[in-house]
Amino acid sequence: MARFRRKTCLTLTGLVLFIFVVIIILKSLRPEGLGFGSPFGLGLFPQLRRAEGDNVQPHVPRDMDGTSGKIRSEERASEPEAALGQFPAPNYNLHVFYYTWYGNPKFDGKYIHWDHPILPHWDPKVAAGYPNGRHSPPEDIGANFYPALGVYSSRDPSVVEAHMQQIRTAGVGVLAVSWYPPDMRDDNGEPTDEIVPLLFDVAHKYQVKVVFHIEPYKGRDDLSMYNSVKYLVERYGEHPAFYRHRTSSGKLLPLFYVYDSYLLNSDKWASLLKDTGRHTVRNTPFDGLFIALLVEEKHKKEILAGGFDGVYTYFATNGFSYGSSHSNWRTIKSFCDSNNLMFIPSVGPGYMDTSIRPWNFQNTRNRINGKYYETAFSAALEARADVISITSFNEWHEGSQIEKAVPKTAGQTKYQDYLPHKSDAYLEITRKWAEKFDKEREKWLV
């Protein structure tokens, strides 16, 4: 019996030694850099690997909570740092306005927004002198420039991916997405809230943050705004791409741009934004920084009375309005500093909307090979802006985009382009000023 036990022990010992030798040999044959605990060769699929030192996790699509509609907070595997290293660091004090209203037959069953109608002048006599109807994509689109990605759909994941790469190339850290409540839309498009989860996920992959640019939807008042903000915070607030701005008091609060805020009187806004308001968000889980659109100088008083936290200027047309005029930015900044408000001027590369408003040539602002854009950035820095917003990434109808554009001639239509510069010219200009802005802020904070 003892002899049998000795024989068994020797056999087991030999088997263990054999297994150990096999493991050592296999380990020496593994591709360099593959983690020891990764038996399925995930090194062959870099998109499934995390940065060195992190656990390897397969990609799991972000799911939705079926009861509340809230995005779950579990983060999927991030891109390796090496992949993001090709981009400049994101500047989270540089925001860019972004539109998700484009569609094409492949993803949406029809063209959306690319077929924008030609808008008539309000004076019938003037309108009679211009064409009417609507554009007919893909050759004829409602824009003076033609996108390098073609007539894309905002629902196309590959397009969102390409956009985030361009945004990171530009050094921009925050996307201000145009937003309407679920089942609501702009005058020429379709509802787009369902696109937002995709946008958040791809933004997070590229370390870009997202804020909401709340449009003047039908029925927007103090109560509906409370419900809108509640919806946005509850649904997206736990997502890692949801942007929160650190205030001077150290609080981290979401930021909301409110387009055409002047359409609602200050009493209604005070109901939402003052501590004693009937539908106040203050000191609730839905508190935030609410940024009003400053168009006319008289709006300053209404913005203060309404309880807003800051102002932005949006329009990419220097001289078009009091707020968009570069010469007024220092004065506006002084007003903001005196009243504890954020000042967020909006810079733009140019403006040209005659494809959809053929009578509006007087508001065209030529790009001057990038000089117009650089002048706007310079004015924003001279005014010591708290944050700079860019109008826009892809508002193609108004020709204010920095997204890549290509030369194109279709029939009698010759689209504008960025020549003699490359298609990414305005991304590069943005990147340069993102770095300048960061350095200037460091000096101001000393």
UniProtKB/TrEMBL annotation:
CDD domains: GH99 (cd11574)
One Gene Ontology MF term: glycoprotein endo-alpha-1,2-mannosidase activity
Subcellular location: Golgi apparatus membrane
Top EC group: hydrolase
Catalysed reactions, semicolon-separated: N-{alpha-Glc-(1->3)-alpha-Man-(1->2)-alpha-Man-(1->2)-alpha-Man-(1->3)-[alpha-Man-(1->2)-alpha-Man-(1->3)-[alpha-Man-(1->2)-alpha-Man-(1->6)]-alpha-Man-(1->6)]-beta-Man-(1->4)-beta-GlcNAc-(1->4)-beta-GlcNAc}-L-asparaginyl-[protein] + H2O = alpha-D-glucosyl-(1->3)-D-mannopyranose + N(4)-{alpha-D-Man-(1->2)-alpha-D-Man-(1->3)-[alpha-D-Man-(1->2)-alpha-D-Man-(1->3)-[alpha-D-Man-(1->2)-alpha-D-Man-(1->6)]-alpha-D-Man-(1->6)]-beta-D-Man-(1->4)-beta-D-GlaNAc-(1->4)-beta-D-GlcNAc}-L-asparaginyl-[protein] (N-glucan mannose isomer 8A1,2,3B1,2)
EC number: 3.2.1.130
Sequence ranges of Basic and acidic residues compositional bias: 60-79
Topology term for the membrane: Single-pass type II membrane protein
Pfam family, one: Glyco_hydro_99
GO cellular component: Golgi membrane
Domain of life: Eukaryota
Region forming the signal peptide: none
Keywords: Golgi apparatus, Hydrolase, Membrane, Signal-anchor, Transmembrane, Transmembrane helix
Main location: Golgi
Membrane recorded as keyword: yes
UniProt-annotated stretches for the region Disordered: 55-80
Protein family according to the UniProt entry: Belongs to the glycosyl hydrolase 99 family.
Protein name (database record): Glycoprotein endo-alpha-1,2-mannosidase
Originating organism: Anguilla anguilla
Lineage summary: Eukaryota, Metazoa, Chordata, Craniata, Vertebrata
